[in-house]
Task: inverse folding
């Protein structure tokens, strides 16, 4: 028998089929093959059509099932991972009312800032563990003010994973982890935040029923099972945002453990066993997948919006036409550490949380027309991304989270030798790479939720470490010097 995992990203939907006994991946596919479009009707906006996610889901699951050579009746449970912080609105007929406002949309920054001030900074941080910021609740406040006709028709609000699960099961449900990422959850009262709902004037009726992260969340309807080539009644037994799920896929569940990703956005995600927060709210704290009141497990999330999207922009607009990512990495490797004084600040994908929600945009510094070329741009982009990681990880260090080992999937920017080397050298951390991905993690999460595995240790016994990158002492000084220059340039424009 098999498990099926879905990873609903902003670039694509990935699906993996996992053998429940061996834990091995039998087939994986994704769709679309080119990055999915993000609509920006105004500067700082970012929207996608939720129905597109569903179309991508149908294509990806058929490809994964075909590659795995399994039948619908072989699937025992389904797990869903999804892009965090988005806002999906549906009416009573479960029809989408407007495009989803996704994670990198910055329009609601001012709403969160006012809520933070008016509710009270200390109260927000002690109860929500965050400022309301630019998260789902604040995005809903924007809709309430600017699209009142849409707001009046809302039956339920959802995160992207809630929407995909609704399309599968016909049920609208969510999780505590999901509500915490939307900044709807009060960790002191262990309930939906009265402070936030009252301040924004939201009815609790807008919130979906709450189900456990691991456990029964609905079953495939007959019509959807036919669409997906699966069996009616197949249970959905796990759901989590992409970063908590990525941590699960790397078996990062206990205090002090760290997971990282380098996709469209970049994330360092550490598990904390105590109710703690950054006083400036530059990093975020959410309920991890295994959080309980009795045994707190909180995910401290550093997110950098402009990561893989900068690298892909360089590939499309600067590098020679038709170049692959491997060739782009080879091009970058032809110039020295520090790119001969060229620095790129990778902040061109919306307001950056670690810069206190400022939108400073991407910028290039130290460009000399007589020295620098495409190779320098390629290297400076990857180093700039790494330096943004380092800048944010220093904030996590201030919170008492020591980062000695970083676990990551062998994917996206972690495939780049320059990126891996620079990150290890500038942070002094060992990087461990594993053969896994978010869809595989979601599939194994489904196995835990369905009771197939008694715990995470059993689910991830097959997790395979494929590479270890140690800091290179001979290169560390050069990387640290380039970081110091980069940081000085950032602080001049981000004051």
Result:
């Amino acid at each position: 028998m098999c498990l099926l995992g879905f990873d609903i990203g902003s670039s694509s939907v990935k699906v993996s089929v996992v053998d429940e006994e061996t834990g091995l991946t039998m087939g994986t596919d994704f769709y679309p093959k080119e990055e999915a479009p993000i609509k920006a009707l105004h500067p700082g906006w970012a929207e996608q059509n939720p129905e597109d996610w569903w179309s991508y889901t149908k294509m990806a699951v058929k490809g994964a099932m075909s590659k795995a050579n399994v039948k619908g009746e072989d699937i025992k449970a389904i797990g869903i991972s999804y892009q965090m912080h988005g806002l999906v609105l549906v009416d009573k007929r479960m029809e989408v009312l407007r495009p989803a406002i996704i994670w990198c949309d910055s329009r609601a920054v001012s709403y969160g800032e006012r809520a933070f001030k008016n509710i009270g900074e200390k109260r927000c941080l002690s109860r929500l563990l965050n400022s309301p910021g630019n998260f789902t609740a604040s995005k809903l406040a924007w809709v309430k003010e600017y699209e009142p006709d849409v707001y009046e028709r809302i039956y339920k609000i959802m995160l992207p994973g809630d929407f995909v699960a609704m399309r599968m099961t016909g049920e609208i449900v969510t999780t505590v982890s999901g509500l915490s990422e939307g900044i709807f959850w009060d960790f002191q009262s262990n309930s939906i935040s009265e402070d936030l709902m009252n301040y924004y004037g939201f009815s609790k009726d807008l919130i979906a029923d709450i189900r456990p992260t691991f456990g029964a969340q609905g079953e495939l309807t007959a019509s959807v099972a036919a669409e997906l080539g699966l069996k009616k009644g197949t249970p959905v037994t796990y759901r989590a945002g992409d970063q908590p799920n990525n941590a699960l896929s790397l078996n990062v569940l206990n205090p002090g453990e760290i997971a990282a990703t380098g996709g469209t956005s970049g994330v360092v995600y550490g598990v904390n066993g105590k109710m703690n927060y950054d006083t400036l709210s530059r990093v975020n704290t959410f309920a991890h997948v295994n959080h309980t009141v009795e045994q707190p497990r909180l995910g401290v999330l550093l997110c950098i919006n402009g990561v893989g999207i900068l690298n892909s922009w360089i590939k499309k607009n600067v590098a020679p036409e038709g170049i692959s990512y491997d060739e782009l990495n080879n091009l970058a490797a032809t110039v020295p550490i520090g790119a001969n004084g060229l620095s790129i600040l990778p902040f061109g994908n919306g307001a950056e949380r670690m810069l206190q929600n400022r939108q400073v945009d991407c910028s290039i510094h130290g460009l000399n027309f007589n020295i620098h070329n495409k190779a320098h741009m390629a290297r400076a982009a990857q180093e700039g991304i790494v330096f943004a990681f380092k800048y944010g990880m220093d904030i996590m260090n201030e919170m008492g989270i020591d980062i000695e080992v970083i676990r990551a999937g062998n994917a996206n920017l972690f495939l780049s030798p320059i990126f891996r080397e620079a990150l290890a050298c500038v942070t002094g951390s060992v990087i461990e790479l594993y053969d896994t991905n978010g869809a595989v993690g979601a599939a194994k999460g489904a196995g835990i939720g369905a009771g197939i595995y008694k715990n995470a240790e059993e689910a991830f016994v097959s997790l395979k470490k494929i590479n270890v990158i140690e800091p290179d002492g001979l290169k560390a000084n050069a990387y640290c010097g380039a970081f110091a220059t980069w940081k000085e340039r950032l602080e001049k424009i981000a004051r």
